[in-house]
Amino acid sequence: MIRKALFVIAAGATLWALGTRPSSAQQASGAEWRFVVAGDSRNCGDVVMPAIAETARKNQAAFYWHLGDLRAIYEFDEDIQHQPEHIAKPLTIEDYEAIAWPDFIESQIAPFGSIPFFLGIGNHETISALETREHFLLQFADWLDTPVLRAQRLKDDPKDHRLKAYFHWIVRGVAFYSLDNATEDQFDAAQMSWFERTLAQDLANPAITTIVAGMHKALSESISLSHSMNESAAGTASGRLVYASLLRAQNEAHKRVYVLQSHEHYFMEGIFNTDYWKRHGGVLPGWLVGTAGAVRYKLPDHASDARQAMTNVYGSLLGTVFPNGEIRFAFQKLAETDIPAAVTTRYGKDFVHWCFEENTEAKR
């Protein structure tokens, strides 16, 4: 186990030494480049995430961005239970909680190899006394305080030496914001102040053409209203404020704006096409992509108002960035045959099939 841990640490160091530059095929001036996003990799994530890593690799992605909910924590993840060593000797819940996050590093981050891995926080990272935001920061500091993120944090504010679960980075004129709405008190005053200050700097910078905001729970008043930031009064209010700021970035600063979320375990494009936002400023481009292994949910009421909605699917969102800052997103659906052979060998064909056929709360 120590040798495996050392391998992961070495892989992480190599990954961040490479930075977040697009691959050599994408570095030519004016060339398009790509990145990959998904969230919610509990339950069957150890099966699905290596296949998403292959999607990133085939598309020469500049990075992968995880939108939170790494492991279930409140109960056993089925994939961990079906690892051969734990079939032979079943885990206690204490044993499971001790290995859940290290398993995520070994089974879900390591398959990405040298592809930079940006890590957001979800509500399941704050769901127990053992797994808290503070513990998350300690466990995943290697991915939250990389040279790329540290340099950007200090460029944004030379006095900002504090590690946080929210962060900002810039790639070729596109400013990315990974926000923390894992708990019902977020976005709190400190995060809102940081977001507004940092966004103002990006909006004043003519080299920044595009703003991409990503987070776990959907911003307020989306089609997934019942399972979003509307779950709390503080979330509802602060989610509306962030949305309004992004609207101003689009309508007044004339930046391209895109909003990415997970939390709901399905794919949806056009999540802000609601009466509320039609009456309160306008509809921003928004996607839900909670499709990285978690038990699939049924689609919500008004799903037909979205541009596209699918459940009982696994996969990721591929973003293709064009020289003018436009990003075109396409869902990369995975088939059972896309699961790497080594993963199928480890977990067995029956369990891989179970993940695709039975890991669902939505009637087929």
Explain what you see.
This protein is α/β, with parallel strands linked by helices and 364 residues long. Helix content is 36%, strand content 16%. The strands form two sheets. Strands 4-5-6-7-9-8-10 form a seven-stranded mixed beta sheet.
Write the layout of secondary structure elements.
Elements (H helix, E strand, L loop, with lengths): L1 H16 L15 E6 L6 H14 L5 E3 L11 H4 L2 H5 L4 H17 L7 E3 L13 H7 L1 H4 L2 H10 L10 E5 L2 E5 L10 H15 L6 E5 L18 H19 L4 E6 L5 E3 L5 H5 L6 E4 L18 E3 L4 E7 L5 E7 L7 H7 L1 H9 L7
Parallel strand pairs: 1-2, 2-3, 5-6, 6-7, 7-9
Antiparallel strand pairs: 1-11, 4-5, 8-9, 8-10, 11-12
Helix pairs in contact: 2-5, 9-10
Q: Descriptors for this entry?
A:
364 residues, alpha/beta, 5-stranded mixed sheet, 36% helix, disordered N terminus
Uncertain regions spanning at least 5 consecutive residues: 1-19, 21-28
Question: Judging from the principal axes of the Cα atoms, what is the shape?
Answer: globular
- Overall mean pLDDT: 91
Tell me the total number of β-strands. Answer: 12
> Biggest β-sheet: count, sense, barrel?
7 strands, mixed
Strand order of the largest sheet: 4-5-6-7-9-8-10
Helix/strand/pairing class, anyone? Answer: alpha/beta
Cα Rg: 19 Å
Give the percentage of residues in beta strands. 15-25%
The helix content is: 25-40%
Ends apart, CA distance between termini: 40 Å
Q: Count the helices. How many?
A: 13
Order of helices and strands: HEHEHHHEHHHEEHEHEEHEEEEHH
